[in-house]
Design brief:
heterodimer; A: 244 residues; alpha+beta; B: 251 residues; five-stranded antiparallel sheet; three-stranded antiparallel sheet; 8 strands; rod-shaped
């Protein structure tokens, strides 16, 4: 008996693609498309939400910034005055810091001078910067605004005096080197009365056998104002105190 | 058209729809969201800066009265005008206190000592600084008395240990000191020989373009309530007799 296939030939051809059904896979494509569209709609919604929330956030921040700007503008005279005060204080402090302490130098002079030596004349100046010093770093720093003795200026004192003997003059030279801040002590002249170099006023004030001497004392260059004391961030106030 | 062709066509059409959706709707929104995010970040940073400025301004407002009094105090050290009478008064006070005879004062650096290059007979303004007023003072006294006088002159404006300034008089820079025996060779009370001290010094005044407080008054930093000159004169008129003031950094 011959076997007969009862399935129609059309159906038998379609049976090769399992699960395709009658739509031959188009249904899956449609479903995938719908799923993709749903995902994109979700992404779109999230993005729109972000946009709107950022916009409102930006508006809030802008409004707050505007308010703060107005507050700052209203208080600008105060900040300007504080800035004026800081600038004024820095300028005064720079001048104060750049001064040479003559009183201290005189105190030191009195401290180190030998007993048998006396001073007949003293001539001290704060001269131009860098004339005798080797400290290029000091003289290269900017000078304080308006100071008559800017940083790097070299104070010098020329001493005229009398000593008991020439060895006392030598001792005087040695002792003068002990003065705080001295960089150099150089002898200009030392002569006893009647000798060729003794015609100066100081020589006339010395005893006949006592040598009169002239010595130049050179101090370290004046330092620059310390940065920490003049920092722009310093907030300052004032209080009055009793007079001295 | 075969079944496979139809399927491929459907897939391509679906991808085209999805791509168009992405390109036309989703992507621009995401770009806008990102752009707005960066704008929000920038605005937040700006707000933080402005808030800091506002906080500083508020602090400045709270410290105004202290700052005003310290500016007035600094006006004693560097007044807005020459104020020579108060300078002479200060020198006379200092010399009386130290048994030194205040012999003379000469405007300009005409003393025997060598002045610095900045010294001149007329006031000279240093760039962005104070106007310098060179003077030559002559004092008579013993070495020790003159030493104390120099100490006193320096003390008129000094640094405090806390980094502030103590102001009790004019700020002076001594540029030159010359000591020599006094002409009459008199002796002081202690028997020490009298010396003549010639001091070349510089006092300072504010530049002509600046007033003492910039027009501010004790109650307000604005110029509306009082003219600058009145604040200036009231501040500097006290320079002859006002007590010392200390200008300190804030804690």
């Amino acid at each position: 008996m011959k076997a007969v296939n009862l399935i129609p030939s059309d159906e038998r051809r379609r049976g090769a693609s399992v699960g395709a059904g009658r739509s031959q896979g188009v249904a899956y494509v449609v479903l995938g498309t719908l799923a993709g569209v749903a995902l994109l709609v979700l992404l779109y919604g999230v993005a729109r939400h972000h946009v709107s929330s950022r916009r409102s956030q930006l508006a809030t921040i802008s409004a707050e910034t505007q308010r703060e700007h107005e507050a700052v503008s209203a208080l600008t005279p105060y900040t300007s005055f504080i800035a004026l005060r800081e600038a004024r204080m820095k300028a005064v402090a720079d001048v104060v810091d750049s001064r040479f302490d003559w009183a201290h130098a005189f105190h030191e002079l009195g401290r180190v001078l030998p007993r048998d030596a006396s001073i007949t004349s003293l001539d001290g100046t704060v001269g131009a910067s860098g004339s005798t010093s080797g400290s290029s770093s000091s003289s290269s720093t900017p000078a304080p605004a308006g100071s008559a003795t800017p940083a790097g200026s070299v104070p010098t004192i020329t001493l005229g005096g009398c000593a008991g003997s020439q060895s006392e003059v030598a001792l005087t030279l040695q002792r003068l080197r002990l003065i705080d801040g001295v960089s150099d002590v150089s002898l200009k002249s030392s002569a006893t009365g009647g000798s060729s170099g003794s015609s100066s006023i100081s020589a006339k004030q010395c005893a006949p056998k006592s040598p009169s001497f002239s010595v130049q004392i050179t101090f370290d260059p004046l330092p620059a104002a310390p940065e920490a004391a003049s920092g722009p961030s310093a907030q300052l106030t004032a209080s009055t105190g009793a007079g001295q | 058209m075969t079944t496979r062709d139809r399927l491929v066509l459907a897939v391509v059409a679906a991808l085209a729809v999805l791509g168009a959706f992405w390109v036309l709707l989703v992507s621009p929104q995401r770009k806008t969201a990102n752009k707005l995010s960066s704008e929000v970040s920038a605005a937040s940073a700006q707000l933080a800066t402005v808030k800091g400025e506002a906080a500083n301004a508020l602090v400045a407002q709270q410290r105004y009265s202290a700052a005003y009094s310290s500016v007035v105090s600094l006006g004693k050290a560097v007044p807005p005008s020459e104020e020579v009478p108060s300078l002479i008064y200060q020198l006379a006070q200092a010399s009386n206190r130290k048994n030194v005879e205040f012999s003379s004062i000469t405007a300009g650096a005409s003393g025997a000592t060598t002045p610095s290059p900045s010294s001149a007979a007329t006031p000279a303004t240093a760039p962005a600084g104070f106007t310098q007023m060179p003077f030559t003072f002559v004092f008579n006294g013993g070495f020790s008395d003159l030493y104390h006088l120099f100490l006193q002159l320096n003390k008129a404006t000094v640094r405090t240990t806390s980094g502030g300034l103590r102001v009790s008089g004019r700020l002076l820079t001594l540029q030159g000191v010359k000591l020599e025996p006094a002409a009459e060779t008199a002796s002081g009370p202690s028997g020490a020989q009298k010396l003549t001290g010639t001091i070349t010094a510089t006092a300072y005044v504010l530049p002509a373009t600046q007033s003492l407080t910039g027009g501010a008054t004790a109650s307000s930093p604005t110029t509306a309530t009082a003219p600058a000159s009145s604040a200036t004169s009231s501040a500097t008129s006290s320079s002859t007799s006002a007590p010392a003031a200390t200008v300190e950094p804030l804690r």
